[in-house]
């Protein structure tokens, strides 16, 4: 007899949703484990989690560092939320879904459950779209979505500049038939960021069949005889083992893989090197996708940039020259960027490669349950990614010359003028300056049984280990053309339904 019917590890974008949806069935006892703190209702939230105008990158963060490119092995912060709500509780609250082709592409990789047609009901179920009522949108889901109409001057200037450059206007970036410029759909209510902790856990926590355990760090899954037999956890320095009929890892794309490794699930040579006995050979951490971004920085005219403003409100989605993948690029206007002193602010234009071809990896150097993996993103290692980034930089630089951007800015300071004028220097700058869009994924990907890159099947079942599942951004077999919070919540919705209804 297990302690619980289901144990969910990590209360983030996927985990909180799974726990909330499964406990709709009063007969299923669910334990939700979270390493960070838990704030049970809106009134108890600290200011950094309430403030959807700014990312929270210090107070509820894991403190990870990463290496953006092979040319830049610097130790750069990679924020990840450590709190109920996970990264959904600290992020920018951009609420995009991606292109139907992203999900149909997953289906074509031997994962028929993930076609656009099958994902769309979950995208609708998770949202209340306050602006658009149509067959494409939900009207009574937990996450409120709204497109800002109170644009700050730099965001307004950006949309006007897009119009001057003849891009089409896009009233709904979540309508698959659209491209062009317009306000971001955002999961905010006023300034309040609507995390999965607020949207899903607040209403679910009164249920007697849901137990939430914050401040509890998962060390490993105990695997015995090809089955997940328990979960070793540590809180306040005390270790214990908890049992569950099924265990689902939703600790995120950076933390789920080391839990698998510590459980003996991973590449044989890595496990041997770390002295961990092998439970199942699997290519954990072999792939790491993300959205590489660079930033053209401009000195703003007086009274344009202000650190109290929302950091992003709008975007341009476009298709790169020669690309067969629609909307494979975004250009994001950034309302303020700190340059040195706190009062020295820039504004920026950030080209982002959305349909990334190249990937990085996670490297495991320690079996210590509190060690982070080495995160090697290897951005722009793929020539097609680099070519599209260079085109994105060219578009951003041309936009800087439009009357609309000139009206709100003085001059470009990133990159320097001599770099802009020399193609090779600019290419070199792009390689060195590319950084994470904060969307790491695919580190324990889904795939068919004959897919050597797969760690889990299309229902998140870890190959070769009964009763163990992965459900978070790690399982995406490729990165969608969207910021990945809403796609990860969609994944949570699907697993929540499957566990509740006994599909898996
Ligand atoms: C600063 C920032 C800005 C972003 N902006 C956006 C945006 O605007 N729009 C967008 O779509 N996406 C955005 N993202 C990305 C998006 O939020 C994440 O990709 C998404 O939340 C990932 O969901 P997840 O469920 O995979 O992981 P997470 O939401 O990170 O959840 C993992 C949870 O597991 C817990 N955990 C980890 N390890 C353990 C352990 N050993 N034991 C117990 N618990 C553990 C963590 O504390 C966390 O709560 C942003 C991310 C960040 C960090």
Written overview of the protein:
- This protein is an alpha/beta fold.
- It has 13 helices and 26 strands.
- It has two domains: 4-145 and 190-227 and 282-288 and 441-501, FAD/NAD(P)-binding domain (3-Layer(bba) Sandwich), CATH 3.50.50; 153-183 and 291-436, Glucose Oxidase, domain 3, CATH 3.30.560.
- The protein has helices spanning 15-22, 47-50, 100-108, 116-125, 153-164, 196-204, 256-262, 268-274, 383-400, 403-406, 417-420, 423-433, 485-501; strands at residues 4-9, 30-33, 65-66, 76-77, 127-129, 143-145, 180-183, 188-189, 192-193, 210-213, 217-224, 227-235, 238-242, 244-249, 265-266, 280-281, 292-293, 296-300, 314-318, 329-339, 341-353, 361-363, 374-376, 409-414, 435-436, 468-470.
- The strands form nine sheets. A six-stranded antiparallel beta sheet has the order 7-19-20-21-18-24.
- A hairpin with a 2-residue loop joins strand 11 and strand 12.
- Helix 1 packs parallel to helix 13 and helix 9 crosses helix 12.
- The chain is globular and about 70 Å long.
- It binds flavin-adenine dinucleotide.
- Residues 9-15, 33-36, 55, 57, 79-82, 86-88, 90-94, 217-218, 250-253, 255, 259, 438-439, 472-473, 483-486, 488 line the site of flavin-adenine dinucleotide.
